[in-house]
Amino acid sequence: MSGYSNNNYPDVGSINTRDYNYDLPEERIAKYPLPQRDESKLLVWEKGHISESRFNQLPDLLPQSSMLVFNNTKVIRARLLFQKETGAKIEIFCLEPVDPSDYQLAFMQTYRADWKCFIGNAKKWKEGQLKRAVKIKQEEITLTAEMLKKGQNDYIVRFRWGKPYTFSEIIENTGIIPIPPYLNRETEESDKSRYQTVFAKIKGSVAAPTAGLHFSDEVLKKLDGNLVRRAELTLHVGAGTFHPVKTETIAGHIMHSEAVTVSKSLIYELIQCGGNKIIAVGTTSVRSLESLYWLGARLKKAKPNSPDLHISQWEPYSLETKLTKTEALEAIVNYMETSLLEELHFSTQIIIAPGYTFHIIDGMLTNFHQPQSTLLLLVGAFLGDDWVKVYRYALNNGFRFLSYGDSNLYLR
Q1: CA end-to-end distance (rounded Å), the chain
Q2: CA distance 7 to 313
Q3: 3-class secondary structure for the chain?
Q4: Range of weakest confidence among 7-11, 26-30, 111-115, 125-129
Q5: 242 C-beta neighbours (distance < 10 Å), count
Q6: Check whether domain 9-74+194-411 has CATH 3.40.1780.10, yes or no
Q7: According to the model, what pLDDT value does residue 307 have?
Q8: Spans of all domains in the chain
Q9: What rounded mean pLDDT belongs to the chain?
Q10: Of 103, 412, 101, whose CA–CA distance to 286 is shortest?
């Protein structure tokens, strides 16, 4: 793939969000998953041609030696419900750890943990501690929440509990899986398993990488049998994924930042793919993989001992580089080897919108997304004006939309 060297931020920023709107009837939103994960419909767009299949046929639709890259994040039970002595109900929605900020360390914390949170009914909680009982291993303990600091739209909350259980055990025994707000229903027992992918491993997301919800163990085995390679990375999905673009142009939209972890072995696999297709499973994998290109470009220019490992929102449209995909990835490998790292942790705020040039991926699996969302902009960046044709076809042919809906395969 050729390098990218121009500053077209003004062009991208001027995109009108109304151009990425469409009419989504309420009845087309899938409120529940199908009984079988891999029985969903699959819309296939390949170089402008649209066809229809079933998701369990995916392994036969992918070229041999192509590589699927999965996001192995696991949704946490991020909603914690408290009730004040006055009877007022307060919901604390855990977004990301603050002290410690590392997810793995945060879940291993005992006795205390500080998290950035949304608070429902915050006007009823001005001061003092909230308390609730938690039962773990037949032992009842008390979980308290204390508001430390108010941000613009969020709060820093300190949780305490008087026993040497981990915070992971606390939320597993207390919290509720946070299903998307547009489902307009409460979390049910089935969501505990169905709002997780079968390959989920690393706890940290407050929303599922929903393109992965269609995969079953049988489909994964068939991929292996068809010589389709599989690789994994971790991007912890934040609540910002549900935020629509409310500004007239996307220049006024502030993207949320998310934490990404990649292994050195994944970088090597991407380099070794050569001319074989790299297909991202979900928009989170797309953003992670494309961010790697820009991270490599940054590391190529950075001072050896002080690299900035954050990809900002508009960096792809302002950073001038002529690096090839391989050169950018090799820059990451060199940095990791010099720093004795087997895993690289970085953050990305990248917005992928029409006008973006893809450097890593050749295809993606994704669901149908909300109107005027950054996810629909990403689809528009990959499909061009064909996104309209794809969504019109889906609406006219009985496809189910959003998180529990049907799937798309896009191949160039």
Answers
A1: 13
A2: 14
A3: CCCECCCCHHHHHCCEHHHHCCCCCHHHECCCCCCCHHHCEEEEEECCEEEEEEHHHHHHHCCCCCEEEEECEEECCCEEEEECCCCCEEEEEEEEEEECCCHHHHHHCECEEEEEEEEECHHHCCCCEEEEEEEECCEEEEEEEEEEEECCCCEEEEEEECCCCEHHHHHHHHCECCCCHHHCCCCCCCHHHHCCCCCCCEEEECCCCHHHHHCCHHHHHHHHHCCCEEEEEEECCCHHHHCECCCCEHHHCCCCCEEEEEEHHHHHHHHHCCCCCEEEECHHHHHHHHHHHHHHHHHHHCCCCCCCCEECCCHHHHCCECCCHHHHHHHHHHHHHHCCCCEEEEEECCCCCCCCCCCCCCEEEEECCCCCEHHHHHHHHHHCCHHHHHHHHHHHCCCCECCCCCEEEEEC
A4: 7-11
A5: 17
A6: yes
A7: 75
A8: 9-74+194-411, 78-176
A9: 93
A10: 412
Cα angle for residues 40, 46, 52 (degrees, 5° grid): 30
Share of the chain above pLDDT 70, in %: 97
Confidence of residue 6 (pLDDT cuts 50, 70, 90): very low
Single-letter amino acid code for the residue at 302:
A
Q: Tokens representing 305?
A: 């001992």
| Angle at the Cα of 41 from the Cα atoms of 36 and 46, rounded to 5 degrees | 140
- In this predicted structure, what is the pLDDT of residue 245? 86
| pTM of the shown model | 0.92
Burial of 186 (0-12, 13-18, 19+ CB in 10 A): exposed
Is the confidence at residue 10, as pLDDT, over 70? Answer: no
| Structure-block tokens of residue 181 | 């707000």
